[in-house]
UniProtKB/TrEMBL annotation:
This is L,D-transpeptidase family protein. It comes from Sphingomonas sabuli. PANTHER family: L,D-TRANSPEPTIDASE, L,D-TRANSPEPTIDASE YCIB-RELATED. Residues 82-191 form the L,D-TPase catalytic domain. Coiled coil: none annotated.
Length: 192
């Protein structure tokens, strides 16, 4: 029995010493991610959404908007081309007029399985009292359609997360303001 204990102790000691002598295993290096991707966690962007966020922070201060809140510049230009930037990642909607940011709002975009499509679009139809032909004639106040499948931005409920069937929902008064500055042909950029 004593001999067995001595052999077992010797085996354990040898195993421990062998483990110490091999040193740590080399750790695989993480793949290098381009700097732009590290800064912008977007699936698709041309940099418009991050720029719009910076423009909004410069115009309105820190953007601590709660669901349904928005900011609109009191001294917004009365003329000039409009442009819309939608940030699906941050759930924000930005409006420019005459190359100046004039408004920012929270949104509710398409929920999982009905995601709002990314891309470059143009408003091709506007209606103050729009209705969905696809979803039980649901009201779409201040509707501005930019997608041939019926996707639009319009006034609607803003719960604080993506909840629509693909449209971009806006607070009612903000949607009314946006409707007043855009026209058929207004550029719509959706990044996320």
């Amino acid at each position: 029995m004593t001999m067995f204990r001595n052999l077992a102790a010797a085996a354990v000691t040898a195993a421990l010493l062998a483990g110490c002598s091999t040193g740590p295993r080399p750790v695989a290096q993480a793949p290098q991610v381009p700097a732009a991707a590290q800064e912008l966690p977007y699936r698709w962007t041309h940099g418009n959404a991050p720029k719009a966020y910076k423009d909004a922070a410069a115009a309105f201060g820190p953007l601590t908007l709660k669901p349904g809140e928005y900011r609109w510049a009191a001294d917004a230009p009365k003329t000039g081309e409009a442009k819309v930037v939608v940030d699906l990642l941050q759930q924000r909607f930005y409006v420019y007029r005459a190359d100046r940011l004039v408004g920012v709002s929270t949104i509710s975009s398409g929920k999982k399985g009905k995601e709002t499509p990314l891309g470059l679009w143009k408003v091709f139809r506007k209606q103050v009292k729009g209705f969905s032909r696809k979803y039980d004639n649901a009201p779409m106040p201040y509707m501005q359609m930019y997608d041939e499948k019926g996707i639009a931005f319009h006034a609607g409920k803003i719960p604080g997360y993506p909840a629509s069937h693909g449209c971009v929902r806006l607070p009612l008064e903000f949607a009314k303001n946006v409707f007043g500055v855009t026209k058929v042909g207004t550029e719509v950029i959706i990044e996320g």
